[in-house]
Amino acid sequence: MTKKRIYIAYTGGTIGMQKTDQGYAPTAGFLTQRVKANPEFQRPEMPEFAITEYSDLMDSANMTPQDWQTIADDIRDHYDDFDGFVILHGTDTMAFTASALSFMLEGLTKPVVVTGSQIPFAELRSDGQHNLLNALYLAASHPVGEVCLFFNNKLFRGNRTTKVHADGFDAFASPNLPPLLEAGIHIKPSPGVQALSASGPLKVHPITPQPIGVVTLYPGIDSTVIGNILKQPVKALILLSFGVGNAPQRPELLQLFQDARNREVIVVNLTQCLQGKVNMAGYATGNALSRAGVISGFDMTTEAALAKLHFLLSQPLSFQQRLEAMEQSLRGELSN
Ligand SMILES: NC(=O)C[C@H](N)C(=O)O
């Protein structure tokens, strides 16, 4: 049987870092050489793979929407020649990149698995070898046609993930959707969780930087704080509200949201709780937001909503079309 071929795009992150005087930083050539020399990656059960190391290896804290575009274009350029894709990426903004790629890659029928590590590949007790080995193996043996994130034995839908641990191996969670697969002694799907199924062809959408505000509500927050964010040239605001989508019911605050809507600024309501979804019909304090033109983000993560807003604002759509798309599931990113 011919072996599957997987394309590895190495963008940077701790997985390939070495210690420097200023702390960990990526080093050109180092990870690629270590992976190729590691016999585990050459086992007969493993797929063939090719590694492309990006010229500007980065700590993912430095990633921008232009970098999301570079990765998406790279996948497009190699799409026909490979059976699946593994993106090696820093963990800090991995959930943002996985979310952005999910929107940019429409009609995906091959797996794109984003992974990385908390300890560099070359160090003692690194989770890098384990994560990369599993990501490669799953991309070849369990080919789901969607953008996933693999970390610590779980394959998640990428746009459902969030980084929840700064220094533990269990760094990612998918609070509102169980993992697609869990890799224990056996590799098992989660009951009731269906992978996405597109029929292709692949279409890569452009994404450009967009001015988007994010504000976390807190008791007694002054309306001018929010008013000032809305005064900037923002095109959208993510409101991280209380509970099922509640905010202080103050006339001047509600007026700010109404004015934003009239100026065609998208205001999306997400809950600041880790789990559960926005329901603005639940309480008068949430209902007032919806009457002021705030739309629901349901159970999207902040990362998914931020990436989706970038995506929608980068497409030639009307304000109304963007509002509607925000409240619909485009790539399995929300349940409404
Ligand atoms: N574990 C990591 O990869 C963290 C690193 N700062 C990054 O995001 O690139």
From TrEMBL:
InterPro entries: AsnA_fam, Asp/glu_Ase-like_sf, Asparaginase/glutaminase-like, Asparaginase/glutaminase_AS1, Asparaginase/glutaminase_AS2, Asparaginase_C, L-asparaginase_C, L-asparaginase_I. Substrate binds at S60, T91, D92. Residues 213-322 form the Asparaginase/glutaminase C-terminal domain. Its main location: cytoplasm. GO terms for biological process: aspartate family amino acid metabolic process. CDD domains: L-asparaginase_I. It is found in: Cytoplasm. Keywords: Cytoplasm, Hydrolase. Signal peptide: none annotated. The keyword Hydrolase applies. It is an enzyme of class 3 (hydrolase). It catalyses: L-asparagine + H2O = L-aspartate + NH4(+). Residues 5-187 form the L-asparaginase N-terminal domain. Coiled coil: none annotated. Its EC number is 3.5.1.1. One of its GO terms (molecular function) is asparaginase activity. The active site is at T14, T91. One of its GO terms (cellular component) is cytosol. The keyword Hydrolase applies. Homotetramer. Belongs to the asparaginase 1 family. This is L-asparaginase 1.
